[in-house]
Amino acid sequence: MDARLTPDEVTHWSTRFALLGDPTRLALLVEMHAEPGLPVSALAARVGISENAASQSLRSLRDSGWVDADRAGRSVRYSLRPDAVVHTILHDVVGVRHQH
Q1: Which domains does the chain have, with CATH numbers?
Q2: Is the pTM of this model over 0.85?
């Protein structure tokens, strides 16, 4: 098995890790992992940021394919996509936190 990545794979994964490297996006992902289906106002409050800042970060996460946005009337609720690789990453991150 070849453990090396192609240049395209390196670009793909570096983009993914850059998404996780932003504290706001990571905090939003952790909140959506803990409680799926929260509206932007609740996510912003839990992370301690403005709704505008949350919306901008959520847009990036949605564009990456990691987050779904479901409209319910005037509200939009955000959840991690069940098939997103970030689910596995977040399980590892949360698991490591509980080992300390």
Answers
A1: 18-99 (1.10.10.10)
A2: no
